[in-house]
Design goal:
single chain, alpha/beta, about 15% strand, binds pyridoxal-5'-phosphate
Length: about 220
């Protein structure tokens, strides 16, 4: 509301990586259904534990988003078990996901991950490469291209945070003007979600501010 945004225009993705299924169940009981995970194997173990704990009907209402890097040897599991992928970077991966998406499920919703920080980041593709990948993805029958995602270089300064989100929002708007029916701008985490919302995020990915600090460095998990 402080940013002048309609509250229902910004969705919350609860990032549950490294946290146990019991905490996901607690968040679900509090009304949260969308969860983000970075590691495919960890996510699937959690999905199975939750089907036990909550029952199959409740477990089906959970919406899983892959927000970590996706290797080609994991595409089948992702196509079968996730609703969203935020980290699409390659046409080859897109094609595999489309081929492997089971016919009984809705098309897999995907976001292209964009590198808005240049050399400071190795994840995501350069902004100028996004339109070509977007066109390729839009042609795949079992994928639904919904928008863009980025993880800009962190800063403690809200003005700098906003300046780093802005190019992603501008690219998103250019793609919409070119005719892509996009509705999802995935940007903002615990430390910068206010800036991301002020710049137009429609989905914020929040872990620490919901579940507390993670035990170890990301790379050690
Ligand atoms: C871990 C992670 C988050 C959540 O980060 P917090 O700082 O704990 O909110 C969000 N997005 C991605 C891609 C992540 O890997």
């Amino acid at each position: 509301m402080r940013a002048g945004r309609a509250p229902d225009g910004v969705r919350l993705l609860a990032v549950s990586k490294t946290h146990p299924a019991a905490l996901v169940a607690e968040a679900y009981a509090a009304g949260q259904a969308a969860f983000g995970e970075n590691y495919v194997q960890e996510a699937i173990e959690k999905m199975e534990a939750l089907a036990q704990q909550l029952g199959a009907d409740a477990a089906r209402r959970l919406e899983w988003h892959l927000i970590g890097p996706l290797q080609s040897n994991k595409t089948r599991l992702v196509a079968e078990r996730f609703a969203w992928v935020h980290t699409l970077e390659r046409e080859k991966i897109a094609r595999r996901l489309s081929e492997q998406r089971p016919p009984g499920l809705a098309p897999l919703k995907v976001l292209v991950q964009v590198n808005v920080s240049g050399e400071a980041s190795k994840s995501g593709i350069a902004p100028q490469e996004v339109p070509a990948l977007a066109r390729a993805v839009a042609a795949l029958p079992r994928l639904e291209l919904r928008g863009l995602m980025a993880i800009p270089e962190p800063s403690d300064d809200p003005a700098v945070q906003r300046a780093r989100f802005r190019p992603l929002r501008e690219l998103y708007e250019r793609l919409q003007q070119q005719g892509f029916a996009l509705d999802t701008l995935s940007m903002g985490m615990s430390a910068d979600l206010e800036a991301a919302i002020a710049e137009g995020a429609t989905l914020v990915r929040v872990g620490t501010a919901i579940f507390g600090a993670r035990e170890t460095a990301e790379s050690a998990v």
